[in-house]
Amino acid sequence: MKKIVLLFVLAVSIASCKSTSATNTKTDTKAQVAIKGNWVLSSVTYPGSEYIRVLSFQIADSKCFEGSTWKFISNNNKGDMALTDPNCPSFSSPFTWFVNKDGQFVLKLLNAGEKAKKVRDGYVLTLANQTETSFQLLDKIEVGGKMTNVVYQFNKN
Fold it and tell me: Of 11, 90, 129, 150, most Cβ neighbours within 10 A?
């Protein structure tokens, strides 16, 4: 009897420790609809930005994203983006995205013609300061042994 109780307690403990993934939570439809449309990523800021470089989305220097254009379609969670700075690498990509109930913005960059279910890697950022004409995405990075935010500022186009 003691073994059965012990096994039951162990099973409950394991089940209660199960983590939830950003992709396994419900979507925040209201936040998604507010993002629908054409946007410009107007600035990328973080402490120490004048001294250190950050590779954003494993594509280019974070400053190359300033001025980039982003189109978000909320009814099918798709979109596309393009870097526009002539001093930076040329890059454009379709993507899938959604906002979950925890305020997390989940983004998957795709290659042309590629299905999102075939892409294993993506990015989870925090949605912040959302208004009708602007919003921010926050990405956590480690700088000098401390966690800090990279702030991507979007403005409606």
Answer: 150
Q: Rounded to two decimals, what is the model's pTM?
A: 0.79
Residue 44 forms part of a structural domain: yes
DSSP-assigned states of every residue in the chain: -HHHHHHHHHHHHHHHT----GGGS-B-HHHHHHH-EEEEEEEEE-TTTTT---EETTTEEGGGGTTEEEEEETTTTEEEEE---TTS---EEEEEEEEBTTSEEEEEE--TT--GGG----EEEEEES--SSEEEEEEEEEETTEEEEEEEEEEE-
Give the model confidence (pLDDT) of 34-64 as tens digits.
Answer: 999 999 999 999 987 778 889 999 999 999 9
**Based on the structure, what is the number of domains in the chain?**
1
pLDDT per residue as tens digits for the range 4-42: 433 333 333 333 343 445 556 788 899 999 999 999 999
Identify the CATH number of the domain in which residue 79 sits: 2.40.128.280
